[in-house]
Design goal:
mainly alpha; two-stranded antiparallel ribbon; 55% helix; binds zinc ion
Length: 339
């Protein structure tokens, strides 16, 4: 694993929101400003590069419709447990292990980039990895400051809709900046655009590659669901993906503030539910962003960490950053980075 810190993220990699760069309270955008910003982010009729966020919003609504249909027509304890189980699986494996610990923070290293591609081509969330990683690195470097792409300072709806608004890439960065940005995503195994293609599409990943792998992943998991339980299995899979995406959008707000009055709004807090279901002990994570493990005391269950350890035991993973010294990297070298 490289001793190089992850490149410093730049707020300038994203377009400034239509309401400007707001910070912590009281500089919160109004409801109208949040909605104007969201419509701007999906306005593919004005700017074709906004088509992926628009399609993603549509996908979110479509999975919501399936979720409602499935629960009305197939309601049972088994159906509910299946949807929750699928949501936890997707959240732990593809959100925490893949997007968060690997893609964003490089907390561990695969033996081969082909293992990364295995995640890429089976990722059922269908959200572009770059759209997670780039805003997330900015989020760590500007937590609750102007320029943080999501968090309580935007309000609940502003955070919920940030999944689309955080995709507004600045296509006017220089060629050298683009090279640096693209290099920081090398470990993900994407087919990447040239600088000229990036200027046209606003995407580091080749858009056809993205479309093809999102389709393959959805067909693969639908086939698994069908093989297990027929069409209800397919509907359960889609419902589980919706449940996960709803929870993660909500987490952007709730995971960084408190509705329970124990923390100052805007501070990351360890939310027990998110920790148990997806290993997101977020206060620990903000303190040690590059660790492969966020549950730091015995009762903080961290399923994603055990998945990483399992991959290490299988030989898929060669190294991971650990607080117990099992990694050659020392915390002092890995932690203070603004990633
Ligand atoms: Zn955070
Ligand atoms: Zn993080």
């Amino acid at each position: 694993m490289s001793n190089e810190p992850t490149p410093q993220a730049k707020p300038g990699w994203l377009v400034t929101p239509t309401y400007g760069r707001v910070g912590p309270s009281p500089l919160r955008p109004t409801l109208k400003e949040v909605l104007v910003e969201w419509f701007d982010a999906i306005s593919f009729w004005k700017d074709a590069t906004r088509l992926p966020p628009a399609l993603y919003a549509l996908y979110h609504l479509a999975t919501f419709a399936v979720f409602v249909y499935f629960l009305i027509h197939f309601f049972s304890v088994v159906a509910v447990l299946s949807v929750v189980g699928i949501g936890v699986f997707v959240g732990s494996v593809y959100n925490t292990v893949w997007y968060h610990r690997y893609c964003s923070h490089q907390a561990f290293k695969f033996r081969s980039v082909w293992f990364a591609r295995l995640f890429l081509w089976t990722n059922p969330i269908s959200f572009r990895e770059e759209s997670y990683v780039i805003p997330h690195r900015i989020h760590h470097s500007k937590s609750d400051e102007p320029g943080d792409p999501y968090g309580p300072h935007l309000g609940w709806l502003g955070s919920y809709l940030a999944t689309e608004t955080q995709q507004k890439m600045n296509r006017n960065i220089s060629s050298a900046e683009y090279d640096r940005l693209a290099r920081s995503l090398d470990h993900i195994g994407l087919v990447k655009n040239s600088y000229e293609q990036f200027q046209r599409t606003g995407s580091v990943e080749n858009i056809w590659h993205y479309g093809a792998r999102a389709l393959v992943a959805n067909l693969f998991w639908s086939a698994v669901g069908y093989a297990i339980a027929g069409w209800p299995g397919v509907l359960a899979f889609i419902s589980g993906v919706f449940l996960f995406t709803f929870v993660v959008r909500d987490f952007n707000f709730r995971g960084h503030g408190s509705l329970f009055g124990t923390k100052k709004r805007g501070m990351p807090v360890n939310q027990v539910i998110y920790g148990i279901i997806a290993g997101e002990w977020h206060e620990n994570h903000h303190a040690h962003p590059r660790l492969a493990r966020s549950g730091l005391v015995w009762w903080q269950v961290d399923l994603p960490y055990w998945i990483i350890k399992l991959m290490r035991a299988c030989g898929m993973v060669t190294q991971y950053n650990s607080p117990d010294g099992s990694s050659p990297l020392k915390l002092a070298q890995t932690d203070p980075v603004a990633t």
